[in-house]
Design a protein that fits this description.
alpha/beta; Arc Repressor Mutant, subunit A; 2 domains; four-stranded antiparallel sheet; 8 helices; 41% helix; elongated
């Protein structure tokens, strides 16, 4: 599996190249944001690893540019620890966030999780409710025959629920999947995103029929098969 590392720290890139190669990954690297975009277009990596503080184009700009044409998982590896930086990167389209300095075992575990996610998209089903269809393989949502635009975070919440139709998904499970930590607490972002999803997908957002809240526990997606 090919990984693109976009980072302007040559020592870190050198260490990651050696470590990842030892675990079977093929590594290509770019020292700045503009070079990262060009290299991604040339090499088509399966996973992209991005630092936020890079010259020419910063990490968020790189993520936004890549999301214009690729669904390859993007993991941010950055020294920025603020929640605002994490939210901005995830909303731009990143799939995970690791804070420097990090343990290599943690990074490898995150990469394995992203690799499994790539495999899970193959032959993924289409989940339907009412006039909404969620295509998990193409990461697209249609309502009454029209494409629905979702932010990356809205899509990740909906995808998690759609992969577990009819099942209770706890708030903590969603927060961990989206923000990547057991320590994340619900600051209202999750409720806001679910509310936005209801506005886009439910006939009556104030009385949802598919995107249900389980009081004190989490959320549940009722697809046609479970209706």
């Amino acid at each position: 599996m090919k990984i693109l590392i976009a980072d302007d720290d040559p020592q870190l890139v050198r260490a990651l190249r050696i470590t990842l190669a030892a675990h079977g990954y093929e590594v290509v690297a770019a020292p700045d944001g503009a070079a990262a975009i060009a290299l991604a277009a040339k090499e088509h990596p399966e996973i992209v690893m991005v630092d936020l503080g890079m010259p020419r184009l910063d990490g968020v700009q790189v993520i936004e540019a890549l999301r214009g044409w690729t669904t390859a998982p993007i993991i941010v590896v950055s020294g920025r620890t603020g929640s605002a930086d994490k939210v901005e990167a995830l909303d731009a389209g990143a799939d995970d966030y690791v804070t420097k300095p990090f343990q290599i075992d943690e990074l490898l575990a995150r990469l394995r999780a992203l690799s499994r996610r790539i495999g899970a998209t193959t032959g993924a089903p289409v989940v339907r409710f009412a006039d909404v269809s969620i295509d998990l393989s193409t990461k697209s949502v249609m309502r009454a025959g029209e494409r629905v635009h979702l932010t990356p975070t809205e899509w990740r919440i909906l995808e998690f629920l759609a992969r577990n139709p009819g099942s209770l998904v706890t708030r903590q499970a969603l927060l961990k999947d989206i923000w990547g930590s057991d320590q994340v607490t619900d600051t209202g972002y999750l409720r806001l995103y679910v509310s936005q999803l209801r506005k886009k997908l439910e006939a009556d957002p104030s009385h949802p029929q598919a995107l249900l809240t389980e009081s004190g526990m989490g959320y549940r997606l009722i697809a046609d098969a479970e209706a």
